[in-house]
Structures are given as structure tokens and as C-alpha cells.
Amino acid sequence: MTESRNIVLDVQDLVKRYGAITAVDGVSFSVRAREIFGILGPNGAGKTTTLECIETLRPVDAGTILLNGLNVRTQSQEVKRIIGVQLQSSSFFDKLSLAELLVLFGEMYGRSVDPLALLDEVELRDKSRAQVVQLSGGQKQRFSIAAALVNDPVVIFLDEPTTGLDPQARRHLWGVIKRIRSEGKTIVITTHYMDEAEELCDRVAIMDAGKIIAMAPPQEMITTLLAGGFRKEKVERLASLEDVFLSLTGHTIRDE
Amino acid sequence: MLTLASMKMFMRQREAILWTLLFPLLVVILFGFVRFNGVGSIGLGVVNEAGATGADLLARIKSVRTFEVTEGTRESEMGELAKGERDLVLLIPAEYAPATSAEMTAYGDLEAKPQVTQLGGLVLQRVLDESAFAGAPGLRRTALSTLPFKSRNLTYMDFLLPGILSMSIMQMGIFGVAFGFVSLKKRGILRRLWVTPIRPNDFIIAQVAMRLLVLLLQMTIMVGVGILFLNLHFIGNIALIYLMGILGAVVFLGFGFSLAGISKSEDQVAPLANIITLPMLALSGIFFSRSNLPGFVRSITSVLPLTYLADGLRSVAIDGATLAQVTPQILGLVLWGVVSCALAVRLFRWE
Ligand SMILES: Nc1ncnc2c1ncn2[C@@H]1O[C@H](COP(=O)(O)OP(=O)(O)OP(=O)(O)O)[C@@H](O)[C@H]1O
Ligand SMILES: [Mg+2]
């Protein structure tokens, strides 16, 4: 297969338990180079846990994860060098300016970085002397993407980068993410916004209760749903990805 | 290289480091202005070389409220006088015989403590007179002559500065590490670090190394400022000061990491850290000498880590103690270090 040569991330039968809870229950997927791969799912579905296993932050209970041919379980140090990570919740040292923080993060990889070039990438050059606490929510998220880029990573993981942002800030961030992909990076992103997944992602996986219950390009999912006889009550578009999501995972609000 | 990055990370916290360095100095200077000089009692050392013959006189002297009497050999008592631990030392010579001896000698620093020395001399003379006339009146009076003795005239500053240094070592270890790590942990900064190639051990080593470096700097500044501006009578070996400081730091860093391990938030750290540090601040002889504590409390407090550190630093800095002379303190610190590091290894958690 010519395709398999392009695979940057390959997850097979990943299992992760927290005590009695099986947070990730036999998940398999692979991500191709320069792809934007989305993981969708209700709160507590196991998205963050899946990412953290790949990011070497959590010991895995079963399964294999290959990242650029490296085994995440045994070669975590090498893996860390080629991934860029934005965590769902993390902050940065205070008292340092954005530029200083980026330089510092670069040093952790033994690299000297050009902080202004990185800030340009996420359109924050004019904030280079500001501290993280002085940024708005959207600016913070863009900054943590810049921090994820310091080591020129092969794959970038973004965990809910747009949660809590207003529609304008979200669209701004989409632009940033697309540009990063166009520069040759592979991106894995989680989100609760279906329009975002539809707009950004080449393929999405929908997770529920630790399992992937569907995986395909967004358009294909919608087509499949329509082919199954689904019709919206009020039609201005025939269906959106949001409909796919809800029909797969149910309408009720989940507790985490 | 990664350790270096971690170190830089620490060094970038400029304000915190500046504060660490300046705070103890401020405390010292503040307390230096407040003088605790009230003439409460007179510290009298008695050297009784007359044995049983001198016993009656000694008992009389002891019954005088004004005196806080300590007995000792000529050598030890004169040594204490030199350090400023005694106000006056009375010599009861071997040939002393009540009501027949014509002269007796006391030593005191007339220059540095004129009132105390003179007052003490007068009271002593009265006791001698009473003793002489108690047997039969009309016998010879023993005249006391008070001879000047140049003591090093140690001040409260000499006592305080090594104490404050010990205190700041303890605070840095316990509060610095425990609050620092819990906050890094809680805010998710540590998780963000672990997706970089920084290794947890490197990070800890860097944290410890940086704190020790800051500590060396701090000890240098404190001693330097003390000698230059605060009239500190420093006669110690600075290398020995560094050694004791680092040992003390290891003890308290161990406790700091243990606390960081069992606490989930700053709210949990604060009371625990206070429970550990406050009693030691009060009882380890930081601000006031432990010699005023009741006997059994004193013996308990003498095995506290802060006591070992403060006593050790003080004897080296002020009394010029050698390595051999502070071996008990060093052993005490090493033992506490083993305990605290073992605890840290057991309790410390990254998550
Ligand atoms: N550190 C942990 N210890 C124990 N259980 C955990 C831990 N982290 C997550 N879980 C549990 O694992 C399950 C999956 O959580 P996870 O955070 O991966 O979900 P998620 O899909 O990212 O949710 P969200 O959309 O809310 O971010 C949940 O049931 C959660 O309660
Ligand atoms: Mg999540």
C-alpha cells in the first residue's frame, strides 16, 4: 500500500484504565502526513486521555502507538522531540514575556528559536513583551500553539483549542491552524464544535465511552447519514455534521 | 543541557530570587534596631577552686536573686566571659578561707558593660561582707577587686544573624519548594514540561542545584553585610559555614518535597508547612537563646534540625568552631537529612 508510507501516527487497540474506569477501550486509528485529524465526542468520551497516551503523558495499559515509526511506549524521549502539544488545560510560568517563554521552551529541546518568527505564525508579534496573564482567551490559545511549534514538530496535538472562544476568535484560530498545516505539519485536534470539525478536518473520528464509533471525512459521514434516510425537520441545509454527531451519540447531556 | 534549561527556568524568576535574598537581611536589620537590653539579671560565673571551703559562700551567692549563677572551671568561665555569655566571673581561690582572706578577684568587661559590672561588683562585696560577719563580727573583711577584662563583646546581632540565616534556609527549603511545586503541579505547568524532552530528574536536580546556589550567594551576602555594616564579630571558617548551610538546606528541601508530595493545593501546604516551621522558629533559638527554656523543653528542642543548624552556624561564625567542634551538629543534620530525603522519596508525586 502506498498510503501506509504516509502514515505518521498509528494507534492500534489502545486501552487506558483509571482504576475501574476504562477511559479508552480499544481505540485504533491512523493519521496521514499533512492531515488535520479530528477527534469528536461528548465530555468524558476519552479524547484527552487518548491524546495524553500518545503524548507520552500517561502509561498505556494495552495496544501500540507508533509515531513516525517510533514506539511511544518504549521510545518516549525520541517521540517528545518530534511532537508539539497544546494541553486542554495548562498554563505557563508567570513573570516571563511571551518571547522569553518561547526561548525557554526552545532551550528544553536544545534549540535556539526565533521567538518573533514563531509569534508571527500565530499573529502575536505585537504581544511579544506581554505576559501570558495579560492575554485574552483566544490570544492564550494562539500562544500555546506557538509554544507547541518551537521544536518544529512533525505532529501537533491540539486539545480543544477553541473551547471558550467567541466565533471570531475561533475563525481566527482556524486560519492559524490551516496555515500551519499548509507548512507541512500534521495536526490532531479535538473539539466539541461540529462546524469547526467540518471546516478544518480532513477526517474525523467520533468517540463515545472510550470507543471510536465512526471514522470518515465529514462530508462522507453526512452523505452516509442522508443515505440512511435521515432528514432534518427544518431544511435549509440537508444536514450538518452536528446531526451526524448527535444521531450517533444521543441527545442527552452526559455527566463527565 | 536540559538541566541547564531547567536552571534558566528557575533563574528567570528574578523577583522571587531577589526577595529570597533580601528578606532575611531585612529581618536582621529590623531586629538589629530593636534592642533587648533590659538589665534583668546579672550573669555571674563562679570558679570555685576552694572546694568545700567555698561552698558556704557559693550558696550565699546563689541565693541572691540578681545573679544568674553558673559554675565552671577558670578556663571555661573566662571563655564564656570572653564571648559575652557572662557579665562577671568571680574567682574563689584555692587558699580562700572565710573571714581570713583579704582579697578576692572578679573579672568583668568594665568598658563594654560598665553598669552591669559595677553593680555586680557591689552586690558581690555585700555578699562577701555578710559571709565574713556571719560567723563572728570584727573579723577581716574580704575586699573584692573587679579587674577589667576585654571581652569580644558579642552583641545581639552576633546571635541573631546566624539564626536568621538558618531560618531563611528552612523557609526556602520548606515553603519555597512545597509552594513552588504544588503551584506548578496544580496549574498544569509540569504536565506541559513533561511533553518536552526535559527529564523529571533533571528538573529536580536543577531545582535543587539552583536553590543551593542561591543559598551560597545568600550566605555570602549575609555574612558580608554583617561584617561590613552590622558589626558582626565573624571569626569563622566560611567554607564550614557553606557546608553546614548546604546540609541544612538538604534537610529542609527533603521536607519541602515531602510536603509537595502530599499536598494537592497551596491551601494544604500552608498549614502543614506552618506546623513544621513555627514551633522550630520559636524553640530552636533563632531569635532568643534556648537557655531560657525550661530544662526538659530545652533537651527536646536540642534535637530539632533547625537547632542543629542554628547552633552549628553560630558556633562556627562567632566562636570560630572547627569541624571537629561542630561534629555533633553536623551528625544531627546528616541524620535529619537521611530522614527527610527518605520521606521525600516515598511521598513525592508528580501528579
Ligand atoms: N486522571 C484521571 N483519573 C481518573 N479518571 C480520569 C482521569 N482523567 C480522566 N478520567 C476519566 O476518564 C474518562 C475520560 O476522560 P477524558 O478527559 O479523556 O475525556 P474527554 O473526552 O477529554 O472529555 P472532555 O470533552 O470533557 O474533555 C472520564 O470518565 C474521566 O472521568
Ligand atoms: Mg478532554
Give a structural overview.
The complex is a heterodimer of chains A (256) and B (351). By secondary structure, chain A is α/β, with parallel strands linked by helices. Chain A is built from nine helices and ten strands. Chain A has helices at residues 47-54, 76-82, 98-108, 115-121, 137-148, 167-182, 194-200, 218-227, 241-249; strands at 7-18, 21-32, 36-40, 62-67, 70-71, 83-86, 155-159, 186-190, 203-208, 211-216. In chain A, strands 6-7-8-3-9-10 form a six-stranded mixed β-sheet, with helices on both faces. Chain A has a four-stranded antiparallel β-sheet with strand order 2-1-4-5, covered by helices on one side. The mean pLDDT of chain A is 89. Chain B has 351 residues and is of the alpha/beta class. The two termini of chain B are 25 Å apart. The longest helix of chain B has 31 residues, at 156-186. The radius of gyration of chain B is 26 Å and the shape is elongated. At the A-B interface, helix 2 and helix 3 of A face helix 1, helix 2 and helix 7 of B. Bound molecules: adenosine-5'-triphosphate and magnesium ion. The site of adenosine-5'-triphosphate has 13 residues of chain A, from strand 2 and helix 1.
Offer a few descriptive terms.
heterodimer, A: 256 residues, alpha/beta, 6-stranded mixed β-sheet, 4-stranded antiparallel β-sheet, 9 helices, 10 strands, 34% helix, globular, B: 351 residues, D-Maltodextrin-Binding Protein, domain 2, 2 domains, 5-stranded mixed β-sheet, 13 helices, 64% helix, 8% strand, binds adenosine-5'-triphosphate, binds magnesium ion
